[in-house]
Amino acid sequence: MKIIIIEDNRDLVQVLAEGLSESGFIVDSAYDGEEGLDKVVKNEYECIILDIMLPKMDGYELIEKIREAGKDTPILVLTAKDSIEDRVKGLEAGADDYLVKPFDFRELLARINALIRRHTEHKRPILQCGPLVLDPIARECKVDDEIIPLRKREFDILELLMRYENQVFSRERIIAHVWKKEYDGTSNVVDVHIKYLRDKLRPYNLEGIVATVRGVGYKISCPYRQ
Amino acid sequence: MKIIIIEDNRDLVQVLAEGLSESGFIVDSAYDGEEGLDKVVKNEYECIILDIMLPKMDGYELIEKIREAGKDTPILVLTAKDSIEDRVKGLEAGADDYLVKPFDFRELLARINALIRRHTEHKRPILQCGPLVLDPIARECKVDDEIIPLRKREFDILELLMRYENQVFSRERIIAHVWKKEYDGTSNVVDVHIKYLRDKLRPYNLEGIVATVRGVGYKISCPYRQ
DNA sequence: ATGAATGTTACGATTAATTGAAATACAAAA
DNA sequence: TTTTGTATTTCAATTAATCGTAACATTCAT
Questions:
Q1: Does residue B183 reach within 7 angstroms of strand D, measured from its CB?
Q2: A202 CB less than 7 Å from any atom of strand D
Q3: What is the pLDDT of residues A113-164, one digit of tens each?
Q4: Which of A183, A206, B63, B174 sees the fewest Cβ atoms within 10 Å?
Q5: Residue A60 above 50 pLDDT?
Q6: Number of C-beta neighbours around residue B140 at 10 A
Q7: CA angle A45, A50, A52 (to 5 degrees)
Q8: Any CB–CB contact under 8 A between B121 and chain A?
Q9: Cα gap B91→B165, rounded to integer Å
Q10: Which of A72, A115, A213 to mutate against chain B (most B CBs within 10 Å)?
C-alpha cells in the first residue's frame, strides 16, 4: 500500500508519514506541486494526499494535471480553507475527498482507507491470465503496464478466449461470437488473426498463452495456474 | 437465466429489475428475508442479489440459512454499510461478492455475470476415474494435476468410455460415436488408438484402466470402485 | 498346439495449422 | 468526393501433426 503526501510543511509531512507508516502504509512525499506531479506520474500510489496551497503549482492545477495524465488514483485534499467554494473547486477539479486542517489523525486514516477501498471496489472487471491483462471496457491489453495495441478482431477474439479461460473454442464458435454470422467452413480468418495475436504476444514470451487444440479449436492456457 | 433480488426498497428493486431484464435476465424479487429464503429454496436461481438490512431476517442470517439449505447459488450482497467489519461478516457468512451503495449499474451487471460464470465454470462436467480426470470443455486429461496430452481420436475415445464407466463398448459403437460413420468390419483403428492411450497412461500406472473384454470390446475399469 | 482375437509397429497418406503475400474492404483525412 | 493509410480477408504454399492401413507379433481359450 504505497501512498504519497504532497505538502510543503515539512513538519506536518514528518508527523503524518510516521503515523501512516505505523498503520502499514509505505509513505512517499513531495514538497511542491511539480515534484508531486512528477512522482505521481512515475509511480503507482493507492492514494494521494495533497495540500491546496503548494509552491510552484497549486493543488487544483496539480489535480487537473494528474487526471489529464490518466491517473484515477483517489485524491484526498488537505486544506486550511474551509469555505464551500474551495470544497467545490477541489472536488470539481477531480479530488475524491476533503479534510480541513486541523484534523484528527484517526479521521485522516479512516478516510484514506475508505477512499482506497471504494476505489478498488469500483474498479471495473478485468480479465487476467498470468501477466496478460485485458480491460474490456477500456479495450486495453496490457502486460506489466505496457499496452499492446490490438486491432478490433484481435481484441474480440482474445476477450472471448480470456473470458472463458482454458475452454476450447471451435472456429465456428469464434466466428459466431466475434463476427456474429455463421461459419461457411472454408475461411481461415480465425487462424490468421490468431497468428497476428501470437505475433504481438511473442515479444513478451506469451505466444504460448494462445494454444491450439488440434482438430478442435483454440483456447487460452494460463501458465501460472492450472 | 433466472435471478432474484431480495431488497426492501421497492423503488430500487423496480429499477434494477428493469435494467437486468433488458440485459436478458428473468428477474424475481422478495421484499423481506423470510420471503427471500422461501423463494430461494423453492426455485433455481443463477444468482442471488440481496441487501444486508432486511425486514424479518437480516442478510447475514439469510445467507447462512441459504447455505444450510444446501444451495450454493452465488450471492452478491448490496449494502450501504461501508466498513471492513461488515464486508468480512458478509463474506464469512458465505456471500461471494459485495457491492457498496451507491453503485454503478454496469458494475452490478458485470459482477453478476462474473459470479454466474465462475459458478457455472466451477460446475463444469468433469469425468473422473480414480486419479484420472477428464475435462471435456477444456479438453484436458490430467492425473494429479499433470496434463497428459492426448490427440483428438485418443481423447474422444477416452471421453466416450469414461462417460459410461465400466460399460463395454464394441468397436462398432466406438467407430459410430467417434468417427460418426459405420464400421466396415475389417479395420483395427480402434485397437491402434487404444494402444496409444495405454502407452500414454502407463507412466502413471493407469494402463489397466482401459480394459479389454475379449470378444466384445473395451471399457474403463476404475480401480478404486468396481 | 492351434486358431481366433488382440497387440504392436512402421510408414505413407491425409488432414490440419501456419505462414506470407496479395487483394479487398473500410475509415479517416484532404 | 477522392485519396491515403490501415485493417481485414482471401488464397496459395509450406510445414507439422495425426491418422489409417497392413503386416507381423503376441496372447488367450480350448
A1: no
A2: no
A3: 767 766 765 555 678 888 899 988 778 999 988 999 999 999 999 999 998 8
A4: A183
A5: yes
A6: 21
A7: 155
A8: yes
A9: 39
A10: A213
Q: Which nucleotide is nearest to A193 (CA to C1')?
A: D8
Closest CA to B132 of B159, B169, B168, B157: B159
Contact A213 B110 (CB under 8 A): no
> Distance (Å, rounded) from C-alpha B90 to C-alpha B53?
12
CA distance B17 to B28: 8
Instruction: Assess B103–A contact: CB distance below 8 Å, yes or no.
Output: yes
Nucleotides of D under 7 A from a protein CB: 7-12, 17-23, 28-29
Q: Which three cell numbers stand for residue B129?
A: 476415474
- Which domains occur in chain A, in start order? 2-121 (3.40.50.2300), 127-220 (1.10.10.10)
Asked if the C-beta of B104 comes within 8 angstroms of chain A's C-beta atoms, the answer is: yes
* pLDDT tens profile A165-196: 899 999 998 998 899 888 888 899 999 999 99
Task: Please enumerate in sequence order all residues whose Cβ is within 8 A of that of B24, keeping only pairs 6 or more positions apart, or say none.
Answer: B1
CB of A125 lies under 7 Å from some atom of strand D: no
A196 by Cβ neighbours in 10 Å (0-12 / 13-18 / 19+) ranks as middle
Contacts of A164 in chain B (CB under 8 A): 117, 121
Q: Which of residues 138-177 of B touch A (CB under 8 A)?
A: 138-140, 145, 147, 151-152
Residues of A with Cβ-Cβ distance to B104 under 8 angstroms: 122
Identify the burial level of A142 via C-beta atoms within 10 angstroms of its C-beta, where 0-12 means exposed, 13-18 middle and 19 or more buried: middle
Give the count of beta carbons closer than 10 Å to the beta carbon of residue A222.
15
Can you point out the beta strands (E) in chain B? 2-6, 26-30, 47-51, 75-79, 97-100, 127-129, 132-135, 140-143, 146-147, 210-213, 217-220
